Amino acid sequence: MDEKQAITSIFNLVASKYDNPSLRFFPACADKMMEHINIKPGNQVLDIATGTGVVAMAAAQCLGNKGQVDAIDLSENMLQSAQSKLQDAGFENVKFQVMDAENLEFDSDSFDVITCSYGLFFIPDMSAALKSWLRVLKPGGKLIFSSFAPSAFQPLSDIFIKNLAEYDVIPPTPRWLKLAEEDLCKQILLDNGFVNPQVIKSQLGYNLDEFSHWWEAVQSAGYRGLYEQLPEEHRAKFKENHQREIDKLKTSDGIWMDVQTLFSTAIKPK
């Protein structure tokens, strides 16, 4: 299984649990994106790595009855969840489809706006992806993507990684660190043909009431792939040990989950 297939399989696995209160930073991110991107009625919008369609539907609300959102992902299970939400909400201007973000199948100069929420750093060849995105964006069109700052999910994440190492599961460097600094985000945009890159930082974190809510986040997102590497016979003990350490962080407000986020924008030259 190659890298892209491995990532897709994890998101297929967690799709049914992705929309839950423990991961409420996803809709918060969508709202912030809409604040920064200024989608107008009549725009053609492309949402890449749409997941369960949170950003796509936020964009559709901005469009009203004019314009369209094309939303793509490699995870069929994620897209099924998105399609179900779309039908329940009554949107008619969003089209979901399976597509590789490195090789977009759209015509050149097709979109006014491209959005990508916490997805670019999962793409094996980010430069190839950005070049493809630039091609389908109209001259003067705008891109926005979000990524995590280094403090995101700390110290929860470090504790999780440390506890995994006790069972000889050694994760690679987190993918999101590829886009965790303002300079990294700006440079990759400039290197791939975009202009006027800007980065805005926002804290989207919140307090989790108890360990079970952190565990729900672990089971419902990218951390699940690491957890799945644990042999079945060790999982109960791992969870017990992990809870013991996470509970030490709990205050009267709960367990703080940092979700410091970078919002990077850029424009395709006219």
Put simply, the count of helices is 10
Shape field: globular
The CATH class name reads Alpha Beta
List how many beta strands DSSP finds: 9
- The run of helices and strands is HHEHEHEEHEHHEEHHHEE
Low-confidence stretches: none
Distance between the termini: 41 Å
> What is the total domain count?
1
CATH topology: Rossmann fold
Strands ordered across the widest β-sheet: 3-2-1-4-5-9-6
SSE blueprint:
Blueprint: H1 3-14, H2 25-37, E1 44-48, H3 54-63, E2 68-73, H4 76-89, E3 94-98, E4 111-117, H5 126-136, E5 137-148, H6 156-165, H7 182-191, E6 195-203, E7 206-208, H8 211-220, H9 223-227, H10 235-247, E8 255-257, E9 260-267
Helix pairs in contact: 2-3, 6-10
Note down, in words, how this protein is organized:
The protein has helices at residues 3-14, 25-37, 54-63, 76-89, 126-136, 156-165, 182-191, 211-220, 223-227, 235-247, and strands at 44-48, 68-73, 94-98, 111-117, 137-148, 195-203, 206-208, 255-257, 260-267. It is globular, with a radius of gyration of 19 Å. The mean pLDDT is 94. It has one domain: Rossmann fold. Helix 2 (25-37) packs parallel to helix 3 (54-63) and helix 6 runs antiparallel to helix 10 (235-247). The strands form two sheets. It has a seven-stranded mixed beta sheet, with helices on both faces. With 270 residues, it is an alpha/beta fold. The chain is built from ten helices and nine strands.
